[in-house]
From TrEMBL:
PANTHER family: ARGININE-HYDROXYLASE NDUFAF5, MITOCHONDRIAL. Residues 193-276 form the Methyltransferase type domain. This is Methyltransferase. Pfam families: Methyltransf_11 (PF08241). GO terms for molecular function: S-adenosylmethionine-dependent methyltransferase activity.
Length: 428
């Protein structure tokens, strides 16, 4: 599903929003300097508690949250963290925004997968981002945070994993998370050993050589047995069947064209009764940027260009996992909201993360300056915070699935029960 074509008639709400006098809105408003990092903790739905602190970039990984039982809806606990530093440079690239990505159920006829993303463009973006290690590390706050939360789910699986795979390893964020001291964020629990002590060997697989080896000389490499493997493409998993006791994937699957096929390949390389734990961007990620950029282009150019990358919805993921053959599925959602000083800092960080627009058929070249200025004004008008910063929402979909095993619990056949639930409830 692509954005509306140029010249499309805007909806009544869009026409109302387009009357904003964006030409007279300056790029930077006079406001107090923002702290380097902010932490916001949002509770259920619209109720929230706001906690503001200042952190150094290296202490961001210490921010943790203990989760409630996963549920299949978008009203789960939401945690917001990590504001970026103000940017003085002008951004001239295409941002990543989101729409829902639909998946059709097809028969296994060997037909080619529907192509949405340019995989070579995505590889070039990762290589370019990693070529500036300092800026790339500074923009890793989101990937580090998601990797930490992903690995926390291993605390509930009481077993060791002789051989594990990190598919789409990026800069080995998962390996870094596995070596954290006391990974359990619950203060009532005793101090626990790093999760790396339960991993025999971690195979970190990534298509970008520069990004994969960016942190190969950092100290965390001494605390875990890690083998770096450069892939031709993450869409092809070149490992033997039943060769891994665990597969992890953090913030990589949302750029896959054939997501059902890749999930099937992941299930194939798992041993019986072995888990897959993944995290990907999905749903309404960056909805603030999507809406403001569409309104800005509609107002300044009379149409909308495809700056939008389609993402899977949480309702799709469970079905995709089931189609891939996984058992005992768990899917849950977190919204991570990051405060930025302006839209230029937001888009600059997306570039430094390697998360620029890679959709096929996108408009080449830089976004026009007038559109960027209009986007800045509309974004602040629709979504801006009272302190002058702007929020950006990243919706993270976490999934857990197990390769089928003989010892796994299974549901009894329909109609085999010998007790009536109605009788039990009435007796109480």
């Amino acid at each position: 599903m692509l954005p509306a074509r140029a010249g499309a008639t805007p909806s009544p709400s869009e026409r109302h929003c387009c009357i904003i006098e964006v030409a007279e809105i300056p790029m930077q408003k006079e406001r107090a300097p923002l702290p380097r990092h902010r932490l916001f903790v949002l509770l259920q739905d619209s109720q929230f508690q706001k906690v503001t602190q200042t952190f150094s970039p290296m202490s961001v990984s210490a921010l943790r949250c203990r989760y409630a039982a996963p549920v299949m809806n978008s009203t789960t606990r939401r945690v917001v963290c990590l504001a970026a530093a103000p940017s003085s440079r002008f951004f001239a690239g295409s941002p990543s925004t989101t729409i829902r990505r639909s998946y059709a159920v097809t028969s296994g006829g060997g037909s080619a997968a529907f192509q949405v993303f340019n995989r070579r463009t995505k590889w070039l973006q990762k290589e370019r981002a990693a070529s500036n290690p300092e800026a790339s590390r500074q923009a890793d706050y989101l990937k580090d945070e998601v990797a930490n939360r992903l690995c926390e789910r291993l605390l509930d699986i009481k077993r060791s994993f002789p051989r594990a795979l990190d598919l789409g390893a990026n800069s080995c964020n998962v390996a870094r998370a596995l070596t954290r001291e006391n990974p359990d964020p619950d203060p009532s629990k005793p101090i626990s050993e790093p999760l790396a002590t339960r991993i025999g060997e971690l195979v970190a697989a990534e298509s970008s050589h520069t990004l994969l080896h960016r942190d190969a000389d950092l100290p965390f490499n001494n605390d875990i047995s890690i083998t770096r493997t450069v892939l031709v493409d993450e869409e092809h998993v070149p490992f033997e069947p039943a060769s891994f006791d665990l597969v992890l994937s953090s913030l990589s699957l949302h750029w896959i064209n054939d997501l059902p096929g890749v999930l099937t390949q992941i299930n194939n390389v798992l041993k019986p009764d072995a888990p897959f734990i993944g995290a990907m961007l999905g749903g309404d990620s960056l909805f603030e940027l999507r809406t403001s950029l569409q309104l800005a282009e509609q107002e300044r150019r009379g149409g909308i260009s495809p700056h939008v990358s389609p993402l899977a919805d949480v309702r799709d993921v469970g079905g995709l996992m089931q189609r891939a053959g996984f058992k005992m599925l768990t899917v849950d959602v977190d919204d991570i909201v990051v405060d930025y000083p302006d839209t230029f800092a937001l888009m600059q960080d997306l570039q430094a993360m390697g998360e620029g627009n890679a959709i096929l058929g996108r408009e080449m070249g830089a976004i026009r300056r007038e559109v960027l200025l209009a986007n800045e004004g509309i974004y602040r008008e629709l979504h801006g915070n009272e302190d002058g910063s702007i929020p950006a929402t990243f919706r993270i979909i976490y999934m857990i699935g197990w390769h089928e095993g003989a010892d796994q619990p299974t549901a009894l056949p329909r109609g085999s029960g010998d007790m009536n639930l109605k009788d039990i409830l009435e007796s109480n």
